[in-house]
Design a protein that fits this description.
This protein is 76% helix and 0% strand. The protein is built from 5 helices and no strands.
Length: 108
């Protein structure tokens, strides 16, 4: 009786494994995620303006390190580009806004 019960449990465990394995790869449709990936224009503009102000302040107070100043200039230029797209009414992914407002490495 024990052997039969053990075999039955092993068979049930073996049969439920593939079902759980297949379910773990279920993903939402790409269309469902697309609208949330776009930045809200008003919030993005405020975030970009605040970051631009902060980077300008950091540049004015930074040391004479030309690499640090160039990194900050690059970030300000990237912010200006994203803001120009938003002003034209173009859709901008949230990832572009996040990349533009990220502090360059080594300047925290």
């Amino acid at each position: 009786m024990r052997k039969t019960a053990i075999v039955a449990l092993l068979v049930m465990a073996g049969m439920s494994g593939p079902i759980q394995f297949g379910v773990s790869y279920a993903q939402p449709a790409p269309e469902a995620a697309a609208p949330s990936a776009m930045a809200d224009k008003d919030t993005a503009m405020k975030t970009l303006a605040d970051a631009k102000k902060r980077f300008r302040f950091m540049r004015s107070k930074s040391s004479q390190d030309p690499h640090a100043q160039a990194d900050l200039d690059r970030q300000i230029k990237q912010i200006n580009g994203v803001m120009a797209k938003l002003k034209k009414g173009q859709d901008v992914p949230q990832s572009d806004v996040d990349a533009a407002v990220a502090t360059p490495p080594g300047l925290h």
